[in-house]
Amino acid sequence: MQRICFCLQVKRDRLEEYKERHRSVWPEMREALRQAGWGNYTLFLRDDGLLIGYVETPDFERALHEMAITEVNRRWQAEMKDFFESDSGLGADEQMRPVGEVFHLD
């Protein structure tokens, strides 16, 4: 099982709306994530917009791919795209780059 951490930057003027959107993630989006292998998926948001994501999955690249091919993910990403700081024009799911793990207490 891979433990993946990633960071993104939410626009400061969109923080409250971003949090509100995540209080009611669509049931079909939740199910798609589970089906694609996203376990223990958690998001943390700092006041300056730093978003830290954590997920446990057998294969992160496969989990990303499995979500990318779903219609519900395309709709969700289209709605969420403008919440993120990005010079690349990529969606949040396309910007997820794992942060290297240096310690795990097990």
Write up what this structure looks like.
The protein is an alpha+beta fold. The protein has one domain: Alpha-Beta Plaits. It is 38% helix and 22% strand. It contains five helices and three strands, in the order βααββααα. Strands 1-3-2 form a three-stranded antiparallel β-sheet, with no helix packed on it. A hairpin with a 4-residue loop joins strand 2 and strand 3. The longest helix is centred in the last third of the chain and has 10 residues. The chain is globular, with a radius of gyration of 14 Å. The model has no long low-confidence stretch (mean pLDDT 94).
Keywords for this structure?
106 residues, alpha+beta, Alpha-Beta Plaits, 5 helices, 38% helix
Which secondary structure elements does this structure contain, and how are they paired or packed?
Elements lengths: L1 E8 L5 H8 L4 H9 L3 E7 L4 E8 L2 H9 L2 H10 L11 H4 L11
Antiparallel strand pairs: 1-3, 2-3
